[in-house]
Design brief:
It comes from Streptomyces roseirectus. With about 270 residues, the chain is α+β, with helices and mostly antiparallel strands. Helix 6 runs antiparallel to helix 8, helix 6 packs antiparallel against helix 11 and helix 7 runs antiparallel to helix 8.
Length: about 270
């Protein structure tokens, strides 16, 4: 039986509902969120347009000592190298100061870039649907409503084929268990999210839960279902296995990139 639309991350109009809110931040994570807010404002002052949380912390699903703190910081102008250095330092300090998180990092985009036509169905969607306002003027007010369409799928995740050579290089250079764990976590999450958006228009909904994403994918590609479910588990509890990285870059990744191009096309290209 098909789930009601409201259970699939859509609002009453069939648009993707914004996930997360400050009200969902669990009590253990509120001090680090407050510190991040104050320090971002101190760093950028009047140059700051807005700042956002994303990921498990604003969704209320973060695990103490296991989840990281994810920020999107939006200066009014394009960020400088000094801004990037300051943001990296901010993440390092938050990670050391707050044992509740396992890492802190920030994306840094200028306001005009996020509102550009080129980013409407990529970072624009990310801001409007996956980010929780923390400071400043919410850019979602200037962006369209989004539906789970093939266009959205193509522009968010239709670049996997271009990424795979870089993934193989990174896998070959990952010469410690810690480096491999980080890489398995990243690639697992990326592949599961790409697999989900492959089927998103047919599934007609949105979720950010990796297990739910893998389950949705398995409805349409049962032969790859177990592989995706395992990747989803590794996205939360990664291994340091080189064999997993080889599987991702030599088997699952290439297959998924080819199928994605067949179904939705390649990011940046007009649909035929």
């Amino acid at each position: 039986m098909t789930e009601p639309i409201s259970h699939r991350g859509l609002d009453a109009q069939g648009c993707i509902a914004r996930e997360g809110s400050l009200a969902r931040v669990q009590p253990r994570f509120r001090p680090v969120v407050a510190a991040a807010r104050d320090r971002v404002l101190d760093l950028f002052g009047t140059r700051l347009h807005s700042a956002y949380l994303y990921g498990s912390v604003p969704r209320g699903t973060a695990r103490v000592g296991r989840s990281d703190l994810d920020l999107l910081i939006v200066p009014r102008a394009e960020p400088s190298e000094a801004d990037w250095d300051a943001v990296r330092t901010l993440g390092e300090h938050l990670d050391k100061e707050f044992p509740e998180i396992d890492g802190a990092g920030a994306l840094l985009y200028g306001r005009d870039r996020l509102l550009s036509d080129a980013e409407t169905y990529d970072m624009g969607f990310f801001v409007a649907c996956l980010c929780t306002p923390l400071l400043g003027d919410d850019l979602a007010e200037y962006l369209p409503r989004y539906r789970p369409t093939s266009l959205l799928a193509r522009e968010t995740n239709g670049d996997l084929a271009a990424l795979l050579p870089h993934w193989r290089t990174r896998a070959a250079e990952a010469d410690s268990p810690e480096a491999r764990v980080r890489l398995v976590r990243f690639q697992s999450r990326h592949l599961v999210r790409t697999a989900f958006t492959l089927v998103m228009p047919r599934w007609n909904g949105w979720t950010s839960d990796l297990h739910d994403m893998a389950g949705a994918f398995a409805e349409y590609y049962p032969a790859r279902g177990a592989q995706l479910r395992t990747a989803a588990a590794r996205g939360y509890d990664p291994t340091d296995s080189p064999e997993v990285l080889a599987e991702y870059t030599r088997d699952l990744g290439p297959w998924l990139a080819e199928e994605y191009a067949r179904v939705h096309g390649v990011k940046g290209e007009q649909a035929s």
